[in-house]
Write a structure and sequence with these properties.
This protein is of the alpha+beta class. Helices cover 34% and strands 23% of the residues. It is globular and about 85 Å long.
Amino acid sequence: MAVIKVLDEILANKIAAGEVVERCSSVVKELVENSIDAGSTEIKVELLESGTKEIKVIDNGKGMSEEDALLCFSRHATSKIYREEDLYRIGTLGFRGEALASIAAVSKITLSTSTGEIGTVVMMEGGKLLSTAKGDSRKGTIICVRELFFNTPARLKHLKSLYAELANITEYMNKLALSHPEIRFLLSNDGKEILKTDGSGQLLKVIHYIYGASIAKKMLEVHSSNADYEIDGYVSLPELHRSNRNGMITLVNGRIVRNQELNRYIQDAYHSYQPENRYPIVVLNITVDTSIVDVNIHPTKMDIKFGKQEELNQLVYNMIKEALKKKTLIPHIEKKEAVKETPKKIYEEITLSFDEVKEPEEPLMVNPDFIFEEEIEVHEDVPEKLPPLYPVGLVHGTYIICQNELGMYLIDQHAAKERINYEKVKEKLLHPKKESIALLFPLTLEYPTNEFVILKENFDLLREMNFDIDEFGINSVIIKAHPVWIPNEYEEDNIRKILETVIYREKNFDLQLFYDHVSATAACKMSIKANTNITLEEMDNLISDLRKCENPFNCPHGRPTVIYYSKQDLEKMFKRSGF
């Protein structure tokens, strides 16, 4: 008797549902993406009890015939691809043909659809067809999913609280609205409107609807392209940042995607503009030929691989860097009228987070003799980005008060000096003399095979950094000399940290960013400390050096160096205007 048997179709669909339908937001995702693929210009999502009781999606797409309405619940039934070649040029959000069969297997579904003629109503329960009937001729589709996981109690028990489920649905709907500003979206829960966009096609308007006017005003429009990629979207000013990566939204041909490598380059573009462990708000839509991306990696279709990842990384990095360089980034402190605060809805505070590898946080030691062995001039040819500022005093030995015809400025003297020293040290690191210090006793380090292979591939990079490094036996390296900026007595600890950083980054190790980190550490140690009184002449010299910096607006750790109060704001605060 045969032990191996072909699974019953309903059981197979329940197993597939374990991958495709994880929670209420998974159902919303699959249904709304189907509506988008159907050419809808208006999509409504109506929830009861955060979707745990009912999820209804109403669209005005092309609809389905009676035959298709019945066939769509079959496993691997799809209108998106027909041939094997289509798999390599996927232009729709869905294509697997698993979603509706999987959802139907673990819920009760009513489907009403029409192409503009006599419609069809199909009712399913637990994957079984209950009835088929004629429906109205309204063009489009209405699909209602009730009692999700009613027949899979283990999965039902693992649903989160109503607020958490609603938070996940809201977050995904926000991202869908950002990816398709030309579609009018409406999301409601228990009759209360949560999201509404106008379908005007203006991305900044959607950002306004989702994040509010204050954030929309602080977004910079960006655009860049090369032979393979075209990128459009908005990035936030450095003063606008969040504690998690959920505001970093990347879209590929209108599809919401996750790509950790690309996100890292976006973060790197903000390096030294924002504090560590803070993240910008970014909405970037990448248009690319479907033949050089692969979305067929995971059933959720959110993970993606790019055929020319490095070119895309550099394009995004340079685009954001250029946008930030062109902007005057002095935070403007405005006088705001007092408003009565209303309690925030709990679901707005709950956000999804995807596991990402954390980078090493231990600081490197820097040799002070390397810093002070010679004075480095600030480049005189860098265009001045700060207006002329005239110091008039010092508060608490920390904040320089300046003025000009526009208003009043406060400069954090430590942050400003950090920025000046950072750019000096970084210039020296990027254009070093080919000097190194020989170790009295060569250092031998052993690594696991996988890490040793990565190190060996990066020997040229390490030698460029002035390490004398070679292979030494099985899975071992020997280091005979190191860069001059590594201090005595800390050689081994620093060398280990540097090699670990190279291994962690693998092929994506960026020497310039590494030197950024070293420069920031050195600059902090060199700079004027808080509560240190300096003369007006010293203030003037500090401001002069700051104005020559490439980025005079932030210290290397992302804190602002200067904040601004306009003359009008000062008059408002002292009640000298508006009367």
